Amino acid sequence: MDALQDNDEMQHGQTVSCIGLGAMGWGIASNLASKQAGESVVSQVFVWNRTKSKSEQHAATFGTKCVETLAEAARADVLVTCLPTSTEVAAIANELGPNLRKGMLWIDCTSGDPVTTQKIANFLFNLGVDMVDCPVSGGPDGAMSGNLTAMVGGASFSRAEPFISCFAKKMVVHCGSIGAGDAVKAANNCLNVSHLVLGAEALLALAKFGVRPDIALEAINASSGRSLQTEVRLPTEVLSRKFHYGFKMGLMLKDVNTAIQGLGMQDDGVSLIPRVKEILVMSTDKHGFDADYTNVVKTLEDRAGLNLVG
Ligand code: NDP
Q: What pTM was computed for the model?
């Protein structure tokens, strides 16, 4: 009898398999496994990661169980994926296909493409599997503390909510039908990086005028131009020169592309978001897909011929 069968016999809670233990999936899986999740919701968490050493390390750290194969993971009551894009989610859905347990719930925490998500959900529905898209916001720190916001799409929201609440204690919002969560997340990330770019442009202009960025932020953050980027990201990641928030630039570019293409945003030469995308493309070309997205500010600094600090 294997570990999953053992747990099928548990009287309380349901088994959850987490696939993808990256910057976000790592913390999401640990919160599902925490005692606070409550055994009435989750009886056991199984983990699978492409790089196996990570799932072994997760099991040793959080008391989750590392499964050897994707097929084993597919036998849990609930599957949680947190992968780079919908392409990897679709590949795993295709690979698992008939191995998926009928009646299973699939919670996809990837920031996905809404249209691809709808196609995956349809494919899964025909196999007897319900899917919700559940992209999250809050970064790796929020994932570790379980303090994420979740943007959920799909008719199985009520069924999914008790599991999502284990890692999204800040807020769980039902955005609408399948794909709606992905759509809102793409728009949210456009705002995130646009606010960062605008904040950095303003600080660079002020620096040229002779105003120190930290002094400028002190005033702006008590005024109407403030945002999360001026209050937190610019001081913590940029002025500190850490550039280490934990979100890859290539993934941010993916989200902006999702918004422009997936949501049909127009590039009429005036709209701001396509301009922000151009800056992200330049930054990704220069710093690489894996660079932290806050490095986008370095592109603006290079163009201004000025560093915000010194
Ligand atoms: P990471 O790059 O840190 O992790 C990606 C995970 O996916 C890893 O576990 C990786 O495995 C796995 N993976 C990659 N390719 C494949 C594949 N072909 N098959 C199977 N597994 C694969 O990404 P994040 O955790 O940062 O992001 C995950 C999702 O969450 C993305 O959609 C992102 O946009 C979103 N997100 C990220 C936030 C952040 O601040 N980081 C915030 C909110 C949302 P391996 O370990 O082997 O590389």
A: 0.95
